[in-house]
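Schema walk-through. Below, the input block comes first and the output block second. Nothing else is stored per chain. Lengths vary across the set, and this one has 248 residues.
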Amino acid sequence: MSGHSKWSKVKHQKEATDAVKGKIFTKIANAIIVAVKEGGGIKDPESNFKLRLIVEKARSLNMPKENIERAIERAAGGGEGEEINEIVYEAFGPAGVGIIIEAATNNKQRTVSDLKNVLERGGGVLATTGAVSHLFKYVGLITIPKTGNDNDKVMEQAIDAGAIDIDDTGDDIEVYTEPKDVHKIKETLSQAGVPVSSFELYYRPVTSIPVNDSQTAQKVLSLLTSLEELEDVQKVFANFDIPDNLLH
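--- output ---
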């Protein structure tokens, strides 16, 4: 099982708690603004697939409808919304684990300073562009719980829908797609009665770094958590491979 898919599971559990929802809503609002800008100002989720993914995630986390609409209008209307840009940073963590950090920021200097501080404290370092990204492939990821499913049939349906790869993690079936196809394939599976627990655009590790001792594993997980708690950070991806018994 790839390290980051395990990290995704930990993140989804965290996102479900009320204590962090306020911060998540702010991050989603910023992601909506970026998606509208990158989509050429298109504010209709049906015509802007990245916006559609973010809006559906917002709804799944019970983000109020007015918050979603306000962020879309803010992006389309210019002004404050135009200041926020998406930047992808690359870093190395403990044990040489590769890290990709997606940020949405209106102040690049602040973001870089915050990232450097957290990385330095956590045993990591900011890397140059291209130093880490070649260790990942940008894909769509759809996660399907295995409980009660005919797993062979689900995998067959996913392949027929256009999946580029499928991974059985034990608890879930992970369906990988081309980035532009993730929503279409998710909808196809949902219409066929397949329950989808999550879907996202995702940096999938091509090469994983094994981390087999508890102390290093906790350093890696602590660093990733600290990075994700930064206000400007949207998502963090890492290519560690930590055994299940060391994931806390």
